[in-house]
Write a structure and sequence with these properties.
This protein is 19% helix and 34% strand. The longest helix has 14 residues, at 10-23. The chain is globular and about 40 Å long. By secondary structure, it is an alpha/beta fold. InterPro entries: DUF779 (IPR008497). This is DUF779 domain-containing protein.
């Protein structure tokens, strides 16, 4: 089984469930840019436009997860884990009104893990799957 590039904690899954109930299908984007620094941002699916300057890393709890291509260049040897903590972030992410914020925990891949990685795709070429399949 290929090594996943992005994971999610149980606590973050619970927050995703709350947000999905209210907003429908969701997506994440990790920019490393303005607002809340490099916090992952959660949007209703399709509300954040991704393209060839973004990289699709995989799915977490049924949500596509993208990262800006320039940020991926720095983090390509790192496994990302989406977690959630109490506190208000300074972003446009959907969880902010809940009094929590998503954040990234990371670790370097081992040499063995890097030999069998899940593929990545340009943001405008990622594999779509139906909600039932995810």
């Amino acid at each position: 089984m290929p090594t996943p590039r992005v994971l999610v904690t149980t606590a973050a899954e619970a927050t995703i469930d709350l947000l999905r109930d209210e907003h429908g299908p969701l997506m994440f984007h990790q920019s490393g840019g303005c607002c809340d620094g490099s916090s992952p941002m959660c949007f209703a699916k399709g509300e954040f436009r991704v393209g060839s300057n973004d990289t699709w890393l995989g799915r977490i709890h049924g949500c596509d997860f993208f990262i800006s291509a320039s940020q991926f260049a720095y983090w390509k040897h790192t496994q990302l884990t989406v977690d959630v903590v109490k506190g208000r972030g300074a972003s446009f992410s959907l969880e902010i009104p809940l009094g929590v914020r998503f954040l990234i925990r990371s670790r370097l891949f081992t040499e063995d893990e890097e030999k069998d990685m899940e593929p990545v795709y340009a943001g405008d070429e990622y594999p779509e799957i139906t909600e039932a399949a995810s």
